[in-house]
Amino acid sequence: MNLKPLKALSAAVLLLGIFSGSAFAAEKTGMQTQKPIVIQEQGAFSAGGSVITTPGTFDPTKIADPKGQTLHGDHASVFYQIPAKARKYPLVFLHGAGQSARTWQTTPDGREGFQNIFLRRNYSVYLIDQPRRGQAGRSTVAGTISATTDDQMWFDMFRLGEWPNFFSGVQFPKDDESLNQYFRQMTPNTAAYDSDVVSNALTAALDKIGPSILVTHSQGGGPGWLTAMKSKNVKAVVAYEPGSQFVFPEGEVPEDMPSGTGTLKGYPVPLKDFMQLTKMPIIVYYGDNIPTEISDNPGQDNWRVRLKMARIWADTINRHGGDATLVHLPEVGIYGNTHFMFSDLNNVQIADLLSKWLKDKGLD
Amino acid sequence: MNLKPLKALSAAVLLLGIFSGSAFAAEKTGMQTQKPIVIQEQGAFSAGGSVITTPGTFDPTKIADPKGQTLHGDHASVFYQIPAKARKYPLVFLHGAGQSARTWQTTPDGREGFQNIFLRRNYSVYLIDQPRRGQAGRSTVAGTISATTDDQMWFDMFRLGEWPNFFSGVQFPKDDESLNQYFRQMTPNTAAYDSDVVSNALTAALDKIGPSILVTHSQGGGPGWLTAMKSKNVKAVVAYEPGSQFVFPEGEVPEDMPSGTGTLKGYPVPLKDFMQLTKMPIIVYYGDNIPTEISDNPGQDNWRVRLKMARIWADTINRHGGDATLVHLPEVGIYGNTHFMFSDLNNVQIADLLSKWLKDKGLD
Q: Is A137 in contact with B41 (Cβ distance < 8 A)?
């Protein structure tokens, strides 16, 4: 696949975006230079979840009384699009903490996200809202949502810079509206995060979707590994900056790693389960501005230990006969990427890396 | 526009669905008989909302401390698709209580919803998640979400029947998986419902979208009227079973209407604002199984007064020189429709009604 025209087009779209003055206008202008996307079918469904029941008998004259009533919750919500002439394996996208399917859609500055980019490359795309998040908000357990002000924490945690300053050369647009859109793509947990609930629902989604390539981001990495161990339908895993729940065989868990945001611990699983992860190609990507020495900025420091543990984790997979690749982007000459490299300014370049890897592994 | 081929195709899709045995399979099978959808552009953005700030100074070494930090919330989240050769006015869809953009997507039994149906009819579609719902869950006020069992309440309220019995001839599929999908398309408020917050965000969305036809459902009806009074971009309103917040000129509010779910009150607004609603065509639809006499089933009884007030409301619009049409489907020979007529078994017929009205009003 010759990606050069796409790169040139992306540069043109970027230029149009810069001069249009608004994210939405940038998108409208930019996209009109692109060919239409031909969708063979698209739709939405829920997958997995559970049902709770209050004891008693439902009284149709007292419908607000919970007695004898059920609640369906803890499912995933899935929006999918299948292009004409789709490739064999769909890409199934799972967002990270505080995010939803929006993660993979339009970028904060109005360019195309991985949803459109990979549709244009003839992949079917399935965008997940995990249980207790976004359009899958109905849960079998109660929840509380604070309105704690924390935008600046995320600015630092997601490595845009150290508030209010962007990192020099960061791959993030510096206009106010892009940052506004970025903050507003967040959406809270409607009940407690539970990686078992998430991986069960994702496994149920894959039962419907069939053999797929699982693409996770950040917090989604953990349930991603659990799903790859549970489901026969995971043919490969692509993890963007997995941040926690690195699985290791019992007895091979590395030492705890203290950091500015707490202590990162390996997540022990039976060796038999772990071995599932050696049966598929896996690639893990990390971006730029991750310190190698202890930083007094917790937003940066937590990535120091996460990258460190990810390296040990990839080595462990490979020592057991697996095929795990860890790409630290600055080591391959790609600089300035944030925690959201798939929507960064160079996201077409990031997509090209994935396309090439999928081709190399015979997955395209 | 000759809709007969579409109707025939819909019947074929239904038959395929019945024999396939699963909602998802029905969809996969059904849709392959349809032509691809050609999308000129698609994407997502947030619109409107507000920002709160905690007093103090942000300390980058204590990122979890809310001092000096902001929170962006109370925006709408919008997913849109613009087909090739789009008609002049987009359809902007606002869901009802406990729902999200999912309302307009695939039906519970896996057929195409209004999103796809109207894309195929060359309308651009904009699907809203209103502030504090779905992918627009981040709010500037805190919220609590109970896990109260209430599926049976909604079964009755949404007029599928009187649990566990479906109404005779109801336009809803009677298999378990369809009901499972139907319950799971619900998603809760992440903070208190506020029709001003919703209509402000919707007005901001329309500032970006431009002149549009607003399509609301149920609870969305209220903020729909508020938006039509605030925004110059509402060219018409289509309201499916608006359930509350019927606006009347101050001094012309009808008497309160007690019902099994409480007392329905008219919503007074200044005459000057109300007159905005007389400047655009409006159509309101209600389905079947709405009692005319007091019912001891509150799920049914509440629709008795809502339909009654809607009739007075439409008459008030027209008395002031407007163009409001109320269609009670059984009165035009269409039977069995629930509160979700746009995803009922006969939703293509319901879409045909809308297409015809849009054509009659010169809006297509």
A: no
Closest chain B residue to the Cα of A298, Cα to Cα: B61
Check if A88 contacts B (Cβ < 8 Å).
no
Across B210-229, average pLDDT: 98
Q: Which of residues 260-319 of A touch B (CB under 8 A)?
A: 261, 296-299
Give me the residues of B, 317-356, that contact A with CB < 8 A. none
From B8's Cα to the closest Cα of chain A, the distance in A is: 19
What is A40-360's CATH number, 3.90.1150.10, 3.30.200.20, 3.40.190.10, 3.40.50.1820? 3.40.50.1820
Regarding beta strands A323-328 and A262-264, do their DSSP bridges make them parallel or antiparallel, or are they unpaired?
unpaired
- Phi, psi angle pair for B91, to nearest 5°: -100, 125
Q: How far out from the chain centre does Cα B89 lie?
A: 18
Q: What is the pLDDT of residues A76-134, one digit of tens each?
A: 999 999 999 999 999 999 999 999 999 999 999 999 999 999 999 999 999 999 999 99
Task: Report, as an integer, the average pLDDT of B200-215.
Answer: 98
Domain B39-140+150-360, CATH homologous superfamily name and number: Alpha/Beta hydrolase fold, catalytic domain (3.40.50.1820)
Q: Which of A44, A68, A208 sits opposite B102 (nearest CB)?
A: A44
The pLDDT assigned to A33 comes to 64
What is the pLDDT, as a whole number, of residue B191?
98
Q: What is the pLDDT of residue B309?
A: 98
B34 at A interface, C-beta within 8 A: yes
Residue in A46, A60, A84 nearest the CB of B163: A60
- Give the tens place of pLDDT for each residue, B60-82: 999 999 999 999 999 999 999 99
**What pLDDT shows up at residue B33?**
64
Question: How many residues does this entry show for chain A?
Answer: 364
Q: What is the pLDDT of residue A22?
A: 37
Taking 80 as the threshold, does the pLDDT of residue A340 lie above it? yes
Taking contacts as CB-CB distances below 8 angstroms, the residues of chain A near B208 are 24
Q: Looking at beta carbons, which residues of chain A come within 8 Å of B58?
A: 152, 163
| Mean pLDDT lowest among A29-38, A55-64, A138-147, B74-83 | A29-38
Go through chain B and tell me how many residues it has. Answer: 364
**Interchain proximity A68–B152, CB inside 8 Å:** yes
Q: Look at residue A156 in the predicted model and tell me its pLDDT.
A: 98
Range with lowest mean pLDDT among A267-271, B23-27, B344-348:
B23-27
Instruction: Concatenate the DSSP letters of all residues of A317-356 into one string.
Output: HHHTT-EEEEEEGGGGT-----TTGGGSTTHHHHHHHHHH
Q: List the single residue in A41, A84, A157 with the smallest CB-CB distance to B63.
A: A157
Q: Is B136 helix (H, G, I), strand (E, B) or coil?
A: strand
Contact A37 B42 (CB under 8 A): yes
Tell me which residue in A31, A183, A187 faces B41 most closely, judged by beta carbons: A31
Q: How far apart are CA B226 and CA B220, in angstroms?
A: 10
Say whether pLDDT at B20 is over 50: no
Domain boundaries, chain B: 39-140+150-360
When the pLDDT of each residue in chain B is averaged and rounded to a whole number, the result is 93
Give Cβ neighbours of residue A339 (< 8 Å, ≥ 6 apart). Answer: A157, A158, A159, A218, A241, A287, A303
Inter-chain Cβ pairs, chain A and chain B, closer than 8 A = 268
- Cα separation of A273 and A229, whole Å? 6
Q: DSSP character for B122?
A: T
Burial class (CB in 10 A: 0-12, 13-18, 19+), A139: buried
In three-state secondary structure terms, B144 is: strand
Residue B172 DSSP code: S
A135 and B134 in contact by Cβ < 8 A?
yes
Contacts of B151 in chain A (CB under 8 A): 69-72
Q: Does residue A40 surpass a pLDDT of 70?
A: yes
